[in-house]
């Protein structure tokens, strides 16, 4: 969930905040009038639920990509350079993919948000015109009508749901992948964020996850080095878990207890959890996307370090790994803490991070290539029948381990782009090595956090002492 201010819309004759009578003895009833033009939520279509309708939109993406590729081929025959034609095809593909995914919400929007985290891997000439579009996927999506919101609240909190609130803002403050967030005042006076799941999200999500898998070829040209198929398989399992907000409530409560009173991190306290409605204390703050776009070097470096520290410390402190690393889930609070939102995707690690991760990284850093190879094979990263050259494997992995190899490391878009291009170019050795590697199911969320975290840090252009964080939080790590 997110806590940005509500989006502007056009004039309505009603207020955007619902007065909630009976919200506790003596509780004030607040009605906040809308100032300025806005459009009613009813003008925005409901979440498209029909499989045929959603499938048609998603199917249009690879078909359109194929059409653009054909046109591009013709332009190359007419004498235009391959580079200029490819850049134009990539640009138009990015524009359509993110537009359609954002409109569909559900699993499609979730995948789009995952891609937006990795925009640092895309060529600058592609992302520069569309960075705003990518960021929108992290922060927003079209809202559902207020009457639908009220129906979901009644189904989950009871017909007298109004009595739970002093006031409730009908205008959504932000969007989540399968729901949207509203600001309200709980009956005890606390400001709260109310996350409400889109009706029909279950069917839409399952349809999206089946259909988005067909986008592999179109997306492969946009995100060098990422196996879209493997990412979709992992998203499939995790997203189905996210349909039940009670699981998210349990995870958020675990984090909130573990980080209560922490001077560096803010985890909103859980207020109430139902299957399709989640109520948490409201968290004010500056979105991480704003820090990426406008923060000073000092601000970006500090936030980058806190970001890494939260991800690494979660398994030890809470027995949980926050596994949804995109910027829309992070805020810098007014008192300078890193606020963390949305606990729908977590890896439950009651014993902490597997020590094998630290041991494998340590073996690689000291150049013990044979033991590194055998360790990866034992953990399932290399299947028994696959033959891999230890030297080639080391050269493939070494750049990704640089943050743990030096006292300080500087993440940036150029570095990330080079790494993803290096392992995606068939003319380079890393390409064939990458085809031989596997991600075991037990490591899928860890892998997602690793890749997504690198993407966010590269967007932040963050520099910091990350090796010290490895030593502090990663079991089994005893690198140089």
TrEMBL record:
InterPro entries given in the database record: ABC1_dom, ADCK3_dom, Atypical_kinase_ADCK, Kinase-like_dom_sf, Prot_kinase_dom
Coiled-coil residues: none
Pfam assignment, any one: ABC1
PROSITE patterns attached to this UniProt entry: PROTEIN_KINASE_DOM
Keywords: ATP-binding, Kinase, Nucleotide-binding, Transferase
GO molecular function: ATP binding; protein kinase activity
Low complexity compositional bias, start-end: 1-19
UniProt-annotated stretches for the region Disordered: 1-29
Domain Protein kinase: 167-480
Signal peptide interval: none
Recorded family membership: Belongs to the protein kinase superfamily. ADCK protein kinase family.
Entries under PANTHER family matching the protein: COENZYME Q8, PTHR43851
Protein name: AarF/ABC1/UbiB kinase family protein
